[in-house]
From TrEMBL:
Protein name per Swiss-Prot or TrEMBL: CGNR zinc finger domain-containing protein
InterPro entries: ABATE (IPR010852), ABATE_dom_sf (IPR023286), Znf_CGNR (IPR021005)
Pfam families: ABATE, zf-CGNR
Domain Zinc finger CGNR: 163-203
Gene3D superfamilies to which the protein is assigned, alphabetical: Jann2411-like domain (1.10.3300.10)
């Protein structure tokens, strides 16, 4: 039911770039777990973020204080598992650095957390008279977290785990699922870390 999508992010240096996290649960980390800043300070922040996600929510969103706190716990669980999965590649050093920089806010007992949130009902799909697809409004915080947790269970129990990657850019900790056919995606975005690497390589050659 998921739509392929990219999100426009702003890096610490102010550069805007498009990023495709590949899947909903890793996209959810963009609320603050993978960059050294936090977007979720109160329930309204999560309510504002949910329509930006690839879930395709256009109607009203309602997030309670409890759901807001739950969101951070679920995010920590997804992050811990994603870091672990990305670590099996050549990012060991960076994962350690990410943890040292306080990026890692992993939740204890992550699998139990995924199960807990997935147990809540997910958003209810609806079809309009024009056959457009959407979700019954309002989408609640717990429905959204259920969708994230279900996506995470599919990801972390499935055979795409070795496709969970951390961007190869220096000091870039963006995590994504490589859904490309060759499976050779290395960068958060070619416009950002990919280009920087190209420039660096070129400079090395010219020296
Ligand atoms: Zn990057």
């Amino acid at each position: 039911m998921e739509i392929a999508s990219t999100m426009v992010l702003t890096g610490g240096d102010g550069q805007r770039f498009r990023f495709d996290a590949g899947t909903l649960c890793l996209e959810f980390l963009l609320t603050g777990a993978v960059e050294p800043w936090e977007l979720l300070h109160e329930p309204g922040d999560l309510a504002a973020w949910i329509p930006r996600s690839r879930l395709g929510v256009h109607g009203r969103v309602a997030v309670s204080q409890a759901e807001f706190l739950g969101a951070k716990r679920l995010r920590g669980a997804v992050l811990g598992l994603a870091l672990e999965a990305a670590r099996s590649h050549d990012t060991e050093e960076k994962v350690v650095a990410a943890r040292a920089a306080g990026i890692d806010e992993s939740t204890a007992a992550p699998y139990a957390a995924l199960n807990e949130f997935a147990a809540a009902p997910p958003p209810i799909p609806v079809i309009g008279d024009d056959r457009s697809r959407g979700w019954a409004a309002p989408v609640t915080g717990s429905q959204f977290l259920s969708a994230v947790a279900r996506d995470a269970i599919e990801l972390f129990s499935g055979d795409r785990l070795d496709r969970v990657r951390m961007c190869g850019g220096e000091r870039c900790w963006l995590l994504f699922l490589d859904v490309s056919r060759p499976g050779a995606r290395r960068w958060c975005s070619m416009d950002r870390c990919g280009n920087r690497q190209k420039l660096r390589t070129r400079r090395k050659i010219m020296k």
